[in-house]
Amino acid sequence: MEQMLSVGIDIGTSTTQLVFSKLTIRNTASMVSVPCIKIVDKAVIYRSEIYFTPLKSLTEIDTDEVRKLIEKEYVKANIKPADVDTGAVIITGETARKENASQVLKTLSGLAGDFVVATAGPALEGIIAGKGANAAKISKDRSSTVVNLDIGGGTTNIAVFRDGEVIDTACLDIGGRLIKLDRDRRILYASDKIKKLAMSIGITLQEGSTISIEKLKKITNRMEEILEEVLGIKQKSKELDLITTDHDLRRDYNIDYVSFSGGVADCIDISDSSNDFCYGDIGILLGRSIKNGNILKEKPILVSSETIRATVIGAGTHTTDISGSTITFDENVLPIKNVPIIKLSLQEESLPLEKISQIIKDKISWFQVENDAQLIALAFEGKKGASFNYITQLSDSIISGMKEIIEKDYPIIIIVESDMAKVLGQTLKARVGYKKEVVCIDSVHVENGDYIDIGNSVANGKVVPVIVKTLLLNY
């Protein structure tokens, strides 16, 4: 049994926070079986303070201040960047749209450890929060469909889990800090979409003007109604399309449970109205609108294991998988980050091997820029109990199909779901005359359009940590 140290860093519209977690890995196979090393336990060992995300302006993150906050928490936790094995930096919500978001990620990626990855995107964000809030696990344990609404300062990220698997995602521009106010209820900021939403119910939002509590409540009530619409409780309106980012939920399934996470989730049960604007925004009013709305009346509600910390807990404990025991890899090419994936479908896999090589060539062309191939990873399900003859022919098809990549100074990266990575990887190395580095891993599920990070080996070289990044899910 061994342990890995993981970090999760969440830079959100409202808050920035960090957690450190210990991931325990163990060989779960019997003594007479092929080793099967899995993550068997995940425990948060340190939770940072929750800070307001420092901004230089409405469109720019204060990179230096964010770095100082993270550095301070590393010192408080008595952890050095070199101690970190894996994890994720997540810039979420409206913060991901700031002008210098990519600069912040570059700054933190060096601080956070050799294998911390920078990820963003509302679909992934919602999935991570849903896992951190325990919605995914409950859906699996109860064989049910659970919708988690992660309501933060700038967005509501929605993930739908059935039997532990993601089946749908959506993102809405609904959050507690889309209207910011001073103590006198003077509007300091209102997002463009919320201005349009307010206009649809006859309310004008203008920076510098004072607004009544009654009008603010009408706006947060309308925001709650749109959450009802996305869940299918209320008939869809054109305002749902206005507020939707990327794509809507399909709503072609029954919802068994609803859960809430994010900062606004902590405001749902605040009944004291004497300090509704203590955060300088509409978060508490939005929470109260949800409490008084129809979601809680129409759907069974699950109590989330995490609310405001759901995303950062998910980033620290649920982004990492491992692949090991029977894999092939050249340590000198690790870690590798942000490698796009092309995947063969089951139908394509069933074709004659000589046709597969052409399919691989065609898929690689998706990522060509000015006819210059970039590094990609090839994924497929693979055959259980494949013969050596099949492995050899498959290797030749892969080498033929990936010729453009092999001719460059890139490693061959293969991801196969079936337990055949070791023999396939070794065969590939032999068929290219041991002149190319090969990374061939198994027991990892990916799809076309995903990106993968593979870290340095752990557990005395037996396994490699893997993070699969689904930046956008379209169903």
Structure description:
It is a single chain. An eight-stranded mixed sheet has the order 17-24-23-19-20-21-22-18. Strands 1, 2, 3, 4, 7 and 8 form a six-stranded mixed sheet that branches. The chain folds into three domains: 2-119, ATPase, nucleotide binding domain (Nucleotidyltransferase, domain 5, 2-Layer Sandwich), CATH 3.30.420; 134-304, 2-Layer Sandwich (Nucleotidyltransferase, domain 5); 326-469, no CATH class. Helices cover 30% and strands 27% of the residues. The radius of gyration is 24 Å and the shape is elongated. It has 475 residues and is an alpha/beta fold. The protein is built from 15 helices and 24 strands. α6 crosses α8 (283-292) and α12 (353-364) runs parallel beside α13 (388-401).
Give me a quick take on this structure.
With 475 residues, the chain is α/β, with parallel strands linked by helices. The protein has helices at residues 63-77, 101-111, 122-132, 135-141, 192-200, 213-230, 238-243, 283-292, 295-298, 310-317, 346-349, 353-364, 388-401, 403-406, 421-431; strands at residues 2-11, 15-27, 37-47, 51-52, 55-57, 60-61, 86-91, 116-119, 145-151, 156-162, 165-172, 179-181, 187-190, 244-245, 257-261, 301-302, 320-324, 328-329, 336-343, 377-380, 412-416, 438-442, 451-454, 463-469.
